[in-house]
Design goal:
With about 220 residues, the chain is mainly α. Helices cover about 55% and strands about 5% of the residues. It is flat, with a radius of gyration of 28 Å.
Length: about 220
């Protein structure tokens, strides 16, 4: 089985009726093709599609071709590098096509960042160190942004806010324990608490102070 099928219409991956061996499929790289190595070819293709979050065969083989190119070391695809990338994607478990593409980018950026880290450790030239360090910093920031984007996507775009410590004055009340709310639920209009009588306004405080001092 190669990554260049002769069909033009994407087809879903059918589940194998037989209980095939529970073996993770491996990718074998040849000169002009790549192959999915598994005792049961159908089960291997299905397991690999589940690992990468691919919706059909076209998506699966397209992602495999992209990962093979991203795994290259010295312009040559590397099987061990590719196996690491696929294993990492499997552990993150993308749930849809958006996550599949984003996670593939994340592992590719990580691989590139580690290459930069290796070059930085192996060079004594100051100019090269500065250049590689800048590239490593950009890749690290990109990875962090991708991870945040994945978390936002899985949380439907909402950022939860957790309040752990509260300071309550006399006469106030508080909820004991952690309180987590989404940002759009806890942001109110300015002055809302004052108008509701929960927090005294500054003008009211000044009037009370003057009354205590005997001023009308």
């Amino acid at each position: 089985m190669t990554t260049a099928p002769s069909r033009h219409v994407a087809s879903p991956l059918a589940a194998n009726a037989r209980s095939g061996p529970a073996v993770n499929p491996r990718i074998r790289l040849y000169k002009r093709r790549i192959a999915i190595s598994h005792p049961d070819p159908q089960a291997g293709e299905r397991l690999l599609a589940e690992a990468l979050g691919a919706a059909d065969r076209d998506a699966l083989h397209g992602m495999l071709r992209q990962l093979v190119k991203a795994s290259a070391i010295g312009q040559k695809p590397d099987e061990a590098n590719l196996a690491f990338m696929i294993s990492t994607i499997r552990s993150i478990a993308p749930k849809d096509s958006i996550e599949a593409m984003l996670v593939s980018q994340m592992v590719s950026v990580h691989v590139a960042a580690m290459r930069c880290a290796c070059r930085l450790a192996c060079t004594d030239d100051l100019a090269q160190q500065e250049s590689v360090a800048r590239a490593l910093t950009r890749l690290s920031r990109t990875f962090a942004a991708q991870m945040e984007a994945l978390n936002r996507h899985r949380g439907n775009g909402e950022r939860p806010i957790t309040v752990q410590n509260l300071s309550v004055q006399d006469g106030g009340s508080a909820i004991m324990g952690n309180v987590t709310q989404h940002a759009h639920l806890i942001v109110g209009e300015p002055g809302t608490a004052t108008e509701a009588g929960q927090i005294p306004s500054q003008a009211g405080e000044r009037e009370q102070t003057l009354a205590n001092r005997g001023f009308p």
